[in-house]
């Protein structure tokens, strides 16, 4: 965080000097921050803005993320990142995870919750893997009837409604109740 970092409620300037811009409000006396971010005080327009710290929300190599599967392709999945090392993020950054070598037909479904480890940033794309026991799918549903599923092994699930058995690369944290609650 730099000297320009502000937290919600922080006083930034007198309303006689500056007008409230993006992510700020004026309390009748002072312009205050309405969001976490970096303040940007424009001396010409006399407007102060708070810029959201997007960079703070980009995971680094080695970080573990939890996200929502946004797309499933033949050789990879795209995941929208919701948590970085357990901290929520709202910046909606996506990472991709190759699935070609997994020998599992339905590694994940769209809207599944997955835990991944970031391994590289390449050409603007964030690459992740799920090849450790605690990585993989943490929440999923039945592909046939969208019913509730239980794990049968580390790579198989069974629907409690229709009995359909399917493959997934499950995390050892699959079915942990706090993440199920996140989705309901
Ligand atoms: Zn089912």
TrEMBL record:
Record keyword Ribosomal protein present: no
Membership in a protein family: Belongs to the CSL4 family.
Residue ranges occupied by any Exosome complex component N-terminal domain in the UniProt entry: 6-41
Alphabetical keyword list: Cytoplasm, Exosome, Metal-binding, Zinc
Function description: Non-catalytic component of the exosome, which is a complex involved in RNA degradation. Increases the RNA binding and the efficiency of RNA degradation. Helpful for the interaction of the exosome with A-poor RNAs.
Residues making up the signal peptide according to the UniProt record: none
Residues annotated as binding Zn(2+): 142, 145, 159, 162
Cross-referenced NCBIfam families: PRK09521.1
Main location: cytoplasm
A single cellular component GO annotation: exosome (RNase complex)
Location(s) in or outside the cell: Cytoplasm
Any Pfam family: ECR1_N
Assembly and interaction partners: Component of the archaeal exosome complex. Forms a trimer of Rrp4 and/or Csl4 subunits. The trimer associates with an hexameric ring-like arrangement composed of 3 Rrp41-Rrp42 heterodimers. Interacts with DnaG.
Protein name, per record: Exosome complex component Csl4
Record GO biological process: RNA catabolic process; RNA processing
InterPro entries the record matches: Csl4 (IPR039771), Exosome_cplx_N_dom (IPR025721), Exosome_Csl4_arc (IPR030850), NA-bd_OB-fold (IPR012340)
GO molecular function: zinc ion binding
